[in-house]
Structures are given as structure tokens and as C-alpha cells.
């Protein structure tokens, strides 16, 4: 049995970082993956009102899974506030799903100090499994037909994400 030294781990990580992009490019068929329906959910907002994803069909939905303790989440929320104010009238709806274990007990005080202009709901025990959320942040763009058009793990690249939102907003509501 071999012991991994810091140097070996470093070399292994460099190899993985060099090889994975090549493997990903080799697997790219040139056509975008088929869009799959976004799992429906009903979650409560801070006032106790129900928010149901399927009711947002016809809109492009920015669905942000975040938590008050997540540094990357807090870094990208200002982008989402900007997108929301800029594109709301064109059909963008933004929904933040707070994944904090204590739910509203933790999220409400955070929102009082750090207001977010778009709708925030608290996660239940099911949504993480429905959307395969194991790390944060995770952000999805859902097209006007209710299908997942894009899923990003980690902090979104601001300009590229805005461009993707604009592309989805140009798509027709019904196909």
C-alpha cells in the first residue's frame, strides 16, 4: 500500500486538471444535450405563500440553490439581483432556494440584513434529491417550456450566464 505525499497529490491533481478538459472535449458531439423537464416543487416563501415551479411555465426561470453560509453563493447573488431587475419585464423569473438546515430561522435574519429583490423560498427535505444537489452553489436556467436548459455547479461566470439568459428569453414560449 502506497502513502500519498503532498507532492504526489499535487502531481496527480495537475494531471487530472490537464486530462479532464481533453476528455470532455473528446466526448462533445457538437450538439447540445436534450433538455429534460425540471422537477416540479411547491415551497414556501418568507410570508408562507406557496411557490410552485410549474406555475412559472412560460417564463425563463433562474433557479438558484444557495445558503447563508456559502461564500460562492453570496458572491453571485448580486449578479442575480441585476439580472432580475434587468430582465424581469422580458420574462425572467428568479427564485432562490435557501438550503440552510434551519430554514427560515436562519434565512429570515440574513435577508433582513442582506435584502434580495427576487423571490426566496426555503428548501424542504426532498428538493435536494430531486435536483441532485450535493454542493453549493448550484444554479439552473429553466426554459419557457419548463425544461432545464443549463445547470452550473459553482459560481456562475457573470457575462456568459447573462448571455445565456438573453438567448433563452429570445426563444418562443411554445414550440
Q: What does the model show?
A:
With 175 residues, the protein is an alpha/beta fold. The chain has one domain: Glutaredoxin (3-Layer(aba) Sandwich). 38% of the residues lie in helices and 22% in strands. It has five helices and eight strands. The strands form two sheets. It has a six-stranded mixed β-sheet with strand order 1-8-7-4-5-6, covered by helices on one side. A two-stranded antiparallel ribbon has the order 2-3. Helix 2 packs parallel to helix 5 (158-170). The relative contact order is 0.17.
List keywords for this structure.
six-stranded mixed β-sheet, alpha/beta, single chain, two-stranded antiparallel ribbon, disordered N terminus, 175 residues, globular, Glutaredoxin
Please describe the topology of this protein.
Elements: H1 6-27, E1 36-37, E2 42-44, E3 50-52, E4 60-66, H2 71-87, E5 92-98, H3 104-113, E6 119-122, H4 127-130, E7 138-142, E8 147-153, H5 158-170
Parallel strand pairs: 4-5, 5-6
Antiparallel strand pairs: 1-8, 2-3, 4-7, 7-8
Amino acid at each position: 500500500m502506497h502513502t500519498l505525499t503532498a507532492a504526489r497529490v499535487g502531481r496527480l491533481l495537475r494531471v487530472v486538471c490537464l486530462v479532464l478538459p481533453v476528455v470532455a472535449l473528446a466526448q462533445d458531439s457538437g450538439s447540445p444535450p436534450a433538455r429534460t423537464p425540471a422537477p416540479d416543487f411547491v415551497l414556501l416563501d418568507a410570508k408562507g405563500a406557496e411557490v410552485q415551479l410549474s406555475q412559472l411555465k412560460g417564463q425563463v426561470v433562474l433557479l438558484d440553490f444557495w445558503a447563508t453560509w456559502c461564500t460562492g453563493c453570496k458572491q453571485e447573488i448580486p449578479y442575480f439581483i441585476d439580472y432580475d431587475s434587468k430582465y424581469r419585464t422580458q420574462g425572467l423569473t428568479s427564485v432562490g432556494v435557501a438550503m440552510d438546515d434551519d430554514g427560515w430561522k436562519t434565512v429570515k435574519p440574513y435577508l433582513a440584513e442582506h435584502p434580495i429583490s427576487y423571490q426566496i423560498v426555503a428548501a424542504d427535505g426532498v428538493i435536494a434529491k430531486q435536483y441532485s444537489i450535493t454542493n453549493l452553489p448550484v444554479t439552473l436556467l429553466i426554459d419557457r417550456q419548463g425544461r432545464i436548459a443549463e445547470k452550473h455547479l459553482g459560481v456562475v461566470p457573470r457575462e456568459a450566464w447573462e448571455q445565456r439568459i438573453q438567448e433563452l428569453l429570445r426563444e418562443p414560449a411554445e414550440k
